[in-house]
Amino acid sequence: MSPEGLLQRLADGKSHSGVDLARDFGVTRAAVWKQIAKLEAWGIEVHAHPGQGYRLDRAVDLLDAAALSAAADTHLRARVRRIELFTELPSTNRHLLECERPEPGRLDVCLAEYQTAGRGRRGRVWRVPLGAGLCLSAGWQFEETPPALPALTLAVGVVARRVVAAITGVELALKWPNDLVHGDQKLGGILVELSAEAQGGCHVVAGVGINVAVPEPVLATLSDWERGATDLARATGGRPPSRTELALALVAAFADLFASYAATGFGAYRDEWRRADYLNGRPVRLDDASGSAFGVAAGIEPDGALLVDMAAGERRRVISGDVSVRTPP
User: Fold this and answer.
1) Winning range, highest mean pLDDT, from 10-24, 80-94, 116-130
2) Residue 21 phi, psi dihedral angles, 5° rounding
3) Residues 154 and 290 grouped into a single domain
4) Residue 49 sits in which domain range?
5) pLDDT (tens digit, 9 = 90+) per residue, 23-42?
6) CA 186 to CA 170: how far, in whole Å?
7) Cis amide prior to 177 (ω within 30 degrees)
């Protein structure tokens, strides 16, 4: 008996007798309880009711391994080398960075139901219960480093925004450089990491974390934004999309993005990013190596750099640092 097997049985959110579970899996009831402890370690609350059995606090939409495998073997075969799905992993980005790199022109994809060390920019922690979010990373090998590589994070944001809109009808905003926003709340984030090579090429891994259906107590811990975090369940009025459908659409979109990015650069995505720019015209606080300063966001440049009109009157070009919506003191 594995915790994955038990999760499959309990994922419907209905009550399941401990006696029946022990019998069907050929184990003792103590063994069932041991695996339940593992589910709770994954952030899933399990209720035990005398005479009724065990029930999850919520139904869990598990990723469909068969559908992911079939997609990799059929309509995505020409562009995707492999799609890996793990129940638990420290980080999908880190996994792909440490794996053998794909040949140029093919995408490697890694998904995890639960990440123990999921992270965003500057090492920030992003951890949601198993099945409550989408943790997906895509790895690509560029034969030559694209000139527009610094803006790739912004292009990935545009692609993720397109996919969410196509599947759910929800229009997201994009906060420079890597956040997905809905209703002034953070819905997801992007982390692009790379390993350059002496020969001129580079290996790029783009990770996307999206809150899909996160329990309220956990949601309150996911962001330090003034209005906090949200998820697709709330954005859609309680009708979150299938996580498998969302994952497959992102894989196809990322394959298109990476295959064309060396030729098109950020130019193919800039106008759409501008239309979705969450910061443009807002008062912001900039925190970087030089300290903190206040200004007003003034859009982005062709290479993806953020422009900020500072309180002192100059316009600053920002390529790194933390930018948040703030009112000056």
Assistant:
1) 80-94
2) -65, -45
3) no
4) 3-56
5) 878 888 888 888 888 888 88
6) 14
7) yes
As a whole number of angstroms, the distance between CA 86 and CA 315 comes to: 46
Q: Chain-wide mean pLDDT for the chain? A: 89
What are the CA-CA distances from residue 133 to residues 151, 240, 269 (Å)? 25, 11, 26
Token output for 7: 């999760």
26 and 75 together in one domain: no
175 or 31: which carries more pLDDT confidence?
175
Write the CA distances from 174 to 73, 138, 162, 195, 309, integer angstroms: 33, 20, 11, 26, 19
Question: What is the CATH number for 46?
Answer: 1.10.10.10
CA distance 119 to 191: 8
- Residues 29, 273: Cα–Cα separation, whole Å: 54
What is the C-alpha to C-alpha distance for residues 104 and 118, in angstroms, rounded to an integer?
A: 27
List beta partners, residue 175: 179
**What phi-psi label fits residue 131: left (phi over 0), alpha (psi between -120 and 50 degrees) or beta?**
left
Neighbouring CB atoms inside 10 A of 167's CB total 17
- Do the beta carbons of residue 278 and residue 98 sit within 8 Å? no
Between residues 301 and 225, which one has the greater pLDDT?
Answer: 301
Which one-letter amino acid corresponds to residue 23? R
Contact present, 83 and 109 (Cβ < 8 Å):
yes
pLDDT of residue 125: 64
